[in-house]
Specification:
The chain is an alpha/beta fold. It is 38% helix and 14% strand. A 7-stranded mixed sheet has the order 1-7-6-2-5-3-4, sandwiched between helices.
């Protein structure tokens, strides 16, 4: 058994006890070959539930904020996420977006399942925000199918300011791959990347039932912090 398989064999049953999970649509994840899982982002713990629900190992190129170890519960969650990834985390200051994309390409071209949160950061209010077009660039460059994923309930487990995780029900829903054929071969053009990304975000919204916002979540967060 792989390290990932061993970790999942321990973590998955424990997570289902703490957070009863309703998982739907796993048959939409191809049994083999590269695939991109594009999910909404509600909480730091989101990668855990995608990893538990997906029938195949999932790799994430994750922002450092997903691995906040400022408290004991967050440290424990961080270690679990690392075990389930295995997660590639950027610890170097100044890493460019293109370097992150290149790392992502390696995962996808290696025939693995790549998980991404196209909003780029957690939703500040539970709505679904504008997706970053790096997602479409990856999909159109590699030709990998994009499976939309909708998470529900994770935002109540460990919201900002809470030190101890709460026990809540969680939903994970996989949708059918998004048809990106209208934009095939156009990864190098900004408008097709935007349109393809919007199509993927619409598919996520249809699964999650979230209201869509035509703004970037990071911009809204910056305004709220001010």
């Amino acid at each position: 058994m792989s390290l990932y398989g061993a970790a999942k064999a321990v973590v998955a049953p424990a997570s289902r006890v703490a957070w009863p999970q309703k998982v739907e649509g796993t048959h939409h994840v191809p049994a083999r070959g590269p695939v991109i899982l594009a999910a909404n982002h509600l909480a730091l713990i989101d990668p855990l539930f995608i990893g538990v629900a997906c029938p195949r190992p999932v790799r994430f190129i994750a922002k450092q904020e997903l691995f906040d170890e400022s408290t004991l519960p967050r440290k424990a969650l961080s270690r679990v996420l690392r075990a389930l990834g295995p997660l590639s985390v950027d610890r170097r200051p100044g890493q460019s977006s293109q370097e992150a994309m290149n790392n992502s390409l390696e995962v996808i071209n290696g025939g693995e399942v790549f998980g991404i949160f196209p909003e780029g950061t957690r939703s500040p209010d539970g709505r679904l925000y504008k997706g970053q077009t790096g997602l479409a660039w990856l999909a159109l460059t590699t030709g990998a199918p994009v499976v939309p994923v909708a998470l529900a309930g994770t935002g109540r487990i460990l919201p900002p300011g809470r030190r101890i995780p709460s026990l809540n029900r969680v939903g994970v829903r996989f949708g059918e791959p998004v048809d990106l054929s209208p934009w095939a071969g156009q990864a190098g053009r900004a408008k097709p990347r935007r349109e393809a990304t919007d199509a993927i975000m619409s598919a996520i919204a249809k699964l999650s039932g979230q209201e869509q916002v035509a703004r970037y979540a990071a911009s809204v967060k910056a305004e709220l912090e001010q």
